[in-house]
Amino acid sequence: MFQIAHVVTDRGSKYAVSGGPAHSKADALALIKTLKRNKRFAKATHNTWALLCSEGGPIKNDDGESGAGVVILRMLERAELTDHLIVVTRWYGGTHLGGDRFRRVQDSVHAYLTEAPDLPDSARP
User: Fold this and answer.
1) Are strands 13-21 and 46-53 parallel, antiparallel or unpaired?
2) What is the mean pLDDT, run by run of 10 residues, along the chain of 125 residues?
3) Between 20 and 30 A from 30 (CA), which of 3, 53, 62, 113?
4) What is the DSSP string of 16-51?
């Protein structure tokens, strides 16, 4: 699993992004379980994720960060990246970000698509 431990900080909230190959919801949940073995990620406020399966369609989970899974999913669709899970992790910093939280999710996914190894060139921004 590729991981960028610190992508951005906004008003105290910290963001990280992780991901790896997954072909089903079961694969995605197994990768999330692996991620949460790290106590830091297990204690995060939100671990939002999305997966665009080549067989079975889109799967997402907001993990309490309403709408964030859709943002990740849209970016996966634009990048035409299938069978690859992306997880955006947020540690809440005490200040509500409003709509800016979606920009931070986009920033995190963009960083992942730019830096993750073994992605097709067509998936890169």
Assistant:
1) unpaired
2) 96 97 96 97 98 94 96 97 98 93 97 95 90
3) 113
4) EEEEEE-SSHHHHHHHHHHHTTSHHHHT-SEEEEEE
Q: Where are the beta strands (DSSP E) in the chain?
A: 2-10, 13-21, 46-53, 57-61, 84-91
**What are the tokens at 1?**
């699993």
Identify the CA nearest to 87 among candidates 35, 10, 14.
35
Helix (H) or strand (E) run with residue 113 in it = helix 100-115
Q: pTM for the complete prediction?
A: 0.95
Cβ–Cβ contacts within 10 Å for residue 86, how many?
28
Q: Judge whether 97 and 108 are in contact, CB under 8 Å.
A: no
Measured in residues, the chain has a length of: 125
Distance CA 71, CA 69 (A): 5
- DSSP-assigned letter for residue 12: T
Task: Give per-residue burial for 35-65: e unless 16+ CB within 10 Å, then b.
Answer: bbeeeebeebebbbbbbbbeeeebbbbbbeb
